[in-house]
Amino acid sequence: MNVRIEDLTKDETDFLLSWEDVYKKGIVTFWVLYYLSQKQYDAGTLYTLISANDASLNEHSMYRLLRRLYDVGLLEQTRKEGRNKYYTISEKGKNILNTFTARNIAPLSHTIRSSS
Question: Which CATH class is domain 7-115?
Fold first, then answer.
């Protein structure tokens, strides 16, 4: 089923756009933790990777998110080269990412596979 936004009513369009805005803001944390579970990155590289799929992301938001995740212990700073700080996921971050994925992503992928 492929529905185009142009086919929705104004109320449906407003709801969808609001939902997508909230979704995009929340999913950035997932992508940061996911990418940092694969290898270390600096903020600029993470921004480039994630913003390719989310035009609403800005660099300032990326820096704020990294600071918040670092402050609560989900990230570790691995090195600093000039002004660039490189991060990786911490053990606490891995636990959070794995728990989030098990609770929110894995059930969804099963639902999508079984409905096709």
Answer: mainly alpha
Q: What is the mean pLDDT of residues 59-86?
A: 93
DSSP state of 105: I
pLDDT tens per residue, range 2-19: 678 888 899 999 998 888
* Sign (positive or negative) of CA dihedral 61, 108, 49, 23: negative
Q: Which of 77, 18, 16 is nearest to 43 (CA)?
A: 77
> Residue 56 is which amino acid?
S
Instruction: Write the secondary structure of 3-64 as one string of H (helix), E (strand) and C (coil).
Output: CCHHHCCHHHHHHHHHHHHHHHHHHHHHHHHHHHHHCCEEHHHHHHHHHCCCCCCCHHHHHH
CA atoms within 13 A on the CB side of 76: 11
Task: Kindly report the pTM of this predicted structure.
Answer: 0.78
